Amino acid sequence: MTFGVVTVLVLGLVGVAAWPERASYRTEQLRILVQTGPAGDQQVDLDATFYVPRSASRSSQVPAVLLAHGFGGTKDSVAADAKDLADLGYAVLTWTAQGFGRSTGEIHLNSPDWEVRDAQRLLDWLAARPEVRRDADGDPHVGVVGGSYGGALALMLAGLDNRVDAIVPMITWNDLSRAFLPEATGRGPEQGVFKKQWAGLFFGSGSGSDLSALLGGGGDGPPSPAGSNPQCGRFAADVCAAYLSVATSGRPTQQVIDLLRRSSPASVVDRVKAPTLLIQGTADSLFPLSEGDANARAIAATGTPVRVAWFNGGHDGGSGPRTDRDRLKFLTAQWLGHYLDGSGSAPSRSFTYSRITGLDATNRDLVASGYSVTDYPGVSAPGRSVQISGPPQSIANPPGGTPAAISTLPGGLSSFVGGTGLDVPGQFARYESQPFDTIVDVVGAPTVRLRAASPTGEAVLFVKLYAVGDNSSSLPGGQVAPIRLTGLPATLDGAQPVTVTLPAIVHRFEPGHRFAIVVSTSDQAYATPAEPAVYQVSVEGQVTLPTVDGAPIRNPNVVWWYALFALLALVALGVVAAVVVARMRARRSIRAVDAEHVDTPLVVRGLRKEYADGFVAVQSVSFTVHRGQVVGLLGPNGAGKTTSLRVLMGLTRPTAGEILVFGHRLVPGAPVLSRLGALVEGPGFLPHLTGLANLELFWKATGRPAEDARFEEAMDIAGLGTAIDRRVKTYSHGMKQRLAIAQAMLGLPELLVLDEPTDGLDPPQIAEMRQVLRRYATDGRAVLVSSHLLAEVEQTCTDVVVVHKGEVVASGLVADIVGDSPTVQLDVSDVDAATAVLDALGGVRSVVPDGASLVVDVNGTPRADVVAALVNAGVGVDRVVPRRRLEDAFLALVGGDTKASGER
């Protein structure tokens, strides 16, 4: 790149900084009436938005892109993608499919007579636009892009209308009947096992429930039409009847299968002539890799250019790591650039995939490395056979399918399982391999052969492959292979082996790791026989693991590094100037003092934290910590607690709002931070130094006099005894935690902030910590503690702040939050005698022994009367406390939403 080009780029950057950003496109909000239906005589009103590059005109026409949304979504779900495509120079038409959002009509599941015909009328509309390039009259030069529901539409439209010039379908299906009724021994959906959880969510998101986020739609669930069947919502009657039939019986009729196949690319994919980039996710229990593989093979068989890309995401894994998203954006832009815009050379048709290889230290995002293979091997690539061992085993099918194993939970709920899976004892058989002696990269669908016997002649089983490492076990992709076997003998003696194709995965087995094959009788995600039975299973000794020798993909942006170095050199002076200005502003901000709160340890007002990717960790948080208080900060994982503490410590900047510490506005490096002690994000010490040396080194780094550290008090708090003189690398986790708390208390700061202070402590140490925190809040000091141990917060804190979904939902005294309770807990000297006394006492509703205590529903009887009756009977009463706990109040406030999403 020449210096002149670099200069132009720098001037461009300066221009962006100097003038307000102006979008490279304009938008039109539209209502488009289309004639649709089997006879083309039904009218549907579609809500649409048209994105037009400002450079486009009648004399400078541009290609168009139809951009379809996911099931349960609307045109707004794909607005960000539409803007990206418009920035690339395409005229982009997004619309809300009929039956969703503000569009009229009903949901027909991508029926050729309805949703596909709607899209054909949109092609007609594009052909009439003066800005859109045309191949002939009525034939726009157009590509179709979409994910899930929209991806299937792209495939079906391309198969039924030869005006489509290129498509990019993502995370979508080939055969909807097989997707919802899979069977892993090769039998069709007629013998499939009903995927009840996903089917329920799929149906629910179109019948009025706001479940679209789980399905990748992102829009609000539409209201059902007035007077409609509440069981059907906006679904067409035949689709509704099909779902209700399968959901009730667990088995499909031929009519149901025919309806689902009619709404499937499988019915038309062999007619697709538009070059196709197929993107499928490895974390997708709804439409697994095998669905994308079926589409790829059918299209390739016609000679149509097709390329396959797998990524670490899907309906269970979201959009994947940023590195994957960047790779897929590059592939999409390259594909459309050549086949739609006519720019660039023909893209490679190589197969690309990725696997997680690390963690990005700058943003905590997972890093996925991409790999490439010249020819797409499919999900059944050649591989190696690995021996597994284990005897024949008997396993029980639970009555009614409960309790059931958990492999994954649909969509965003999958974080509950965390990729580990959960099998119920007595309901599964396990067979293990020997540890690998070399690295083995599995890319595709493993296969295993098994035999089964059943007293009923039939069995529904779930086969899965666990990756077993050092003290860990995971279920790659969170998927299972359901099988329905019939004609089984009563014993294994006469059982014939069947081959089971497991879900396709991308997983690296390191040396020393191994795998396990588990055969289970139940799975939470599927419908299983209600009758209890005991099956016998045996797995044959070989498992075939498909392997692929992929070449690492170089980042497509590597060519820009030289330009970036030049840019850095040219803008260095501007950066220095910006830093100087920022520091001057920071100093002015630091000097500002809010006189009203100069004696208040902490005031948080309107705190908001939004990350660059649009994720809002903290929506709006406000609370105050006064002297003498021990305030508990509570909330489910992902509520924003840790993010709020990181902002408080100056570790990250808020997007909006402010934090005052003793009246000083808090910014990184503010002197007032010296009045604050903290333990946030875990202890960090130099392992080769002793505990005492670490404390001394920390205090020395503050630049304050050694006599102000109050080391003796801090070490008393730590309670490490002689261990304080041992090297930290010999400490247990609990010992490190106690040392970290002592470090936070060095100098006895006026405000103490602790994140999970009892993590790693044993019960006596936890009890001691309660007393420490209460004592610490005396003499005008204050404590803010974040913890998930609600019982400890209740016994330790004076006040509590409850945060949910980034907002404060309740705050105040612990006693006020907990509230009154009709039930009390009595610690008594003689449980049996006390029970007899209270059973005879009028007005008491129930008496339940609980160890050395009684749980008593006093039913309005004064507690004093209850205690008096016991004392008069000679029963000692040690304690009387309300039965309602902080945990009860907490769950009431957050609605039971305590899911473990990744908190930032």
Q: Which residue ranges are poorly predicted, with pLDDT under 50 across at least 5 consecutive positions? A: 1-21, 208-224, 414-418, 556-566, 899-904
Using the CA coordinates, give the radius of gyration. 32 Å
Helix content: 25-40%
Number of domains: 6
Secondary-structure content class:
alpha+beta
SSE topology sketch:
Blueprint: H1 3-18, E1 25-36, E2 42-53, E3 64-68, H2 79-87, E4 91-95, H3 115-127, E5 134-136, E6 139-140, E7 142-147, H4 149-160, E8 164-170, H5 176-180, H6 196-204, H7 237-249, H8 254-262, E9 276-281, H9 289-300, E10 306-311, H10 322-339, E11 351-359, E12 366-373, E13 383-389, E14 393-397, E15 428-433, E16 440-444, E17 447-453, E18 459-469, E19 472-474, E20 481-485, E21 498-501, E22 505-509, E23 514-520, E24 533-546, E25 551-552, H11 561-591, E26 602-610, E27 616-625, E28 630-634, H12 641-648, E29 656-661, E30 664-665, E31 676-679, H13 691-702, H14 711-718, H15 733-745, E32 751-755, H16 763-776, E33 782-786, H17 790-796, E34 799-804, E35 807-813, H18 814-818, E36 823-828, H19 831-839, E37 846-850, E38 853-857, H20 863-872, E39 877-882, H21 886-894
Parallel strand pairs: 3-4, 3-7, 7-8, 8-9, 9-10, 28-33, 28-34, 31-32, 32-33
Antiparallel strand pairs: 1-2, 2-4, 5-6, 11-12, 12-25, 13-15, 13-24, 14-24, 15-23, 16-22, 17-21, 17-24, 18-19, 18-20, 18-23, 26-27, 26-29, 29-30, 34-35, 36-38, 36-39, 37-38
Helix pairs in contact: 1-11, 3-4, 14-15
